[in-house]
Design brief:
Belongs to the short-chain dehydrogenases/reductases (SDR) family. The chain is an alpha/beta fold. Helices cover 41% and strands 17% of the residues. The chain is globular. It starts with 8 loop residues before the first strand and ends with a strand.
Length: 222
């Protein structure tokens, strides 16, 4: 059953109590219904409740980001329920501390499938519910350019997802839908410019640009 309304809908995959919640809050402040997808619905429920307590419309859902079919099912159901998806935010990444001299091909591909490949079924399921002006937002990282040898798969994930965003933006642009990766060139912190609120502000600024000022990559340097 559709719960469509005039309110825009923001969906974040790979939500959490830090950056995911912070960005969801920024969009909720603009009147978006915030849908936070965590590992389980029970995980996501408190984050949605936090936003609801602040006077926003929000809901928490569960999604298995290792399962493309589940990603498609969850995103598709959100679109059907609300009648629209205006911002699809892909936020997950896998952190695996392992030397390149020990890392296996299977482990590398598993992490890339999680941190980059999952964007594909998400966009494919969201696209029928996105109209002109909708946006795909991806959390990028400086690891794409300066990978750490102690966690080498993260850099590959972020380089791969940034590449996908470039192609997605060109693919979706004729429909008036644009894609952007916001590359965070710093380490998330509890104080200062790399806390969730200023990063969330940068993400809001990135997606709210008009098409004639669009670029698929934005750097946040604090």
């Amino acid at each position: 059953m559709s719960d469509s309304s005039d309110s825009p809908v923001y969906v974040v995959l790979g939500a959490g109590p830090g950056l995911g919640l912070g960005v969801a809050r920024r969009f909720a402040q603009e009147g978006y219904v915030a849908v936070l997808a965590g590992r389980t619905a029970d995980d996501a429920a408190p984050w949605a409740a936090t936003l609801e307590a602040e006077g926003h419309r929000a809901e928490g859902v569960g999604v298995d980001l290792n399962d493309p079919a589940d990603i498609a099912s969850v995103v598709g159901a959100i679109g059907e329920r609300h009648g629209r998806i205006d911002v699809l935010h892909f936020n997950p990444s896998a952190w695996r501390e392992k030397s390149l001299l020990e890392l296996t091909v299977a482990e590398l591909l598993e992490d890339v499938a999680f941190g980059a490949g999952g964007l594909l079924p998400a966009v494919q399921a969201a696209q029928p519910h996105m109209s002109a002006g909708a946006r795909v937002l991806v959390t990028g990282s400086a690891a794409a350019d300066t990978p750490s040898p102690s966690a080498p798969t993260l850099g590959v994930q972020k380089a791969a997802v940034r590449n996908l965003v470039t192609s997605l933006d060109k693919t979706l642009a004729p429909e008036g839908v644009r894609a952007v990766a916001v590359q965070i060139n710093g380490v998330l912190a509890k104080e200062g410019p790399f806390t969730p609120p200023p990063i969330a502000e940068a993400m809001w600024a990135a997606v709210s640009r008009p098409d004639d000022a669009w670029s698929p990559h934005v750097s946040y340097n604090g």
